[in-house]
């Protein structure tokens, strides 16, 4: 069994989780409020994030990441205030390890899908209405998601080192 | 220091690395031979993977993954045949851990970017020449890259458990 983590490392982990959560919240707000008017043959269409499949997927991954971060923040605060854990130490380390690993993959896939789609779609619609602004906000949202991924990847390295060895 | 891995786990790791390498080679061949003819206003344009930014990125990530897998396969075969390692055991475990982690992220980002771009671009060009076939081959290539990622992610879980503990 691993020794219990120091207070400094617990606070570092809590800060990284809070930073992840903050990035994801801002990313979600940016993306869901992102609208544009597309002009095609003198007709105007309203474009929202729902019209780009990659952005829908990005929203799904962001929400999943937010739920996980919030759950981890609550568990850490509960531990700091009461000194008890809801799970045994080993189960807790396994949960951190697999959680951080899977969620970091999920966040990265959302950000990469959004970057890939935005980079290739933006030139196709360039100049029609304010679509440039729409895609730029998409970039900003994906960048924040990428920052959330970087924090989670750092947590994933930490939770891998904390893992009890089996092989 | 971790105990040396058993022969069975060494062979399992070698098989997973070889499977990753094979998936990446087929993915690269599929993508680089993927061409189509796009018809716009009675003009015909030749489309290659280089014309889609996400596919260029996918090629870069695939080549990086292939180089890493090949390097790991050579190191493992050298160890199996001579019984010696080029690095100390601890350095070797660290190299496996960070290598598998970073390369799995790289492969996933390539596959996700390609899926994101293909899903959103395909309907835009649907019906113009044989572009549907072009994007379908893009999907196939990205799926193989995703399979390579899954193998590397499994190796990454294994190398995390094998890691010497520090925290």
UniProtKB/TrEMBL annotation, chains A, B:
The UniProt transmembrane annotation reads 12-33, 53-81, 102-118, 138-158
The record's annotation in Pfam families points to: CASP_dom (PF04535)
Grouped into one coarse class, the protein's main location is membrane
The record's annotation in InterPro entries points to: CASP_dom (IPR006702)
Localization, per the record, is: Cell membrane
Keywords linked to the UniProt accession: Cell membrane, Membrane, Transmembrane, Transmembrane helix
Query: Where does the Casparian strip membrane protein domain start and stop, copy by copy?
Result: 9-151
Range of residues in the leader sequence: none
Q: Record's GO cellular component, any one? A: plasma membrane
Q: How does it sit in the membrane?
A: Multi-pass membrane protein
PANTHER family from the entry? CASP-LIKE PROTEIN 4A4 (PTHR33573), CASP-LIKE PROTEIN 4D2 (PTHR33573:SF40)
Family indicated by similarity: Belongs to the Casparian strip membrane proteins (CASP) family.
What does the subunit section of this Swiss-Prot or TrEMBL entry state? Homodimer and heterodimers.
Q: What is this protein called?
A: CASP-like protein
Q: Which organism is it from?
A: Turnera subulata
């Amino acid at each position: 069994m691993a020794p219990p983590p120091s207070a400094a490392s617990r606070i570092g982990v809590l800060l990284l989780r809070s930073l992840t959560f903050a990035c994801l919240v801002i990313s979600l707000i940016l993306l869901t409020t992102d609208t544009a008017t597309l002009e095609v043959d003198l007709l105007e269409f309203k474009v929202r994030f729902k019209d780009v499949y990659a952005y829908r997927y990005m929203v799904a991954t962001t929400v999943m990441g937010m739920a996980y971060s919030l759950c981890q923040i609550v568990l850490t605060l509960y531990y700091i205030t009461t000194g008890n854990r809801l799970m045994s130490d080993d189960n807790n380390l396994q949960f951190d390890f697999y959680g951080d690993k899977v969620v970091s993959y999920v966040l990265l896939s959302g950000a990469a899908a959004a970057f890939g789609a935005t980079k290739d779609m933006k030139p196709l619609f360039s100049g029609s209405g304010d679509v440039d602004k729409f895609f730029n906000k998409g970039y900003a949202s994906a960048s924040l998601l990428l920052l959330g991924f970087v924090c989670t990847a750092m947590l994933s390295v930490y939770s891998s080192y904390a893992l009890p060895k089996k092989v």
